[in-house]
Give the backbone structure.
Amino acid sequence: MFDKIFEAQQKAGEAKQRLDNIEVTGTAEGGKITVVANANKAVKSINIDEEFFKGADREEIEELLVVALNKAFEQAENVSQAEMAAMTKDMFGGLGGLGNLFGK
């Protein structure tokens, strides 16, 4: 039993490392604001088009930044869920009928 717990912890650590290396992007206003994050929802960079920045007011930039961040985080969540589903399938797929308990 402890072997399975240790294996699950190892696989979770490996999944976190893979998610750290997957980049997702969120954009707003046709790409004038771009947010790059990893699949663990850590923001890596934010880029605001210089011309747009000069002409936009603070409120507009803040609102669009929130839009871009949410889009990036939504992509990160989708990638993370897919990674966790694959890990769960690998771990529980070999347990015979027990895998069906989790909605397989």
Notes: The chain has a mean pLDDT of 87.
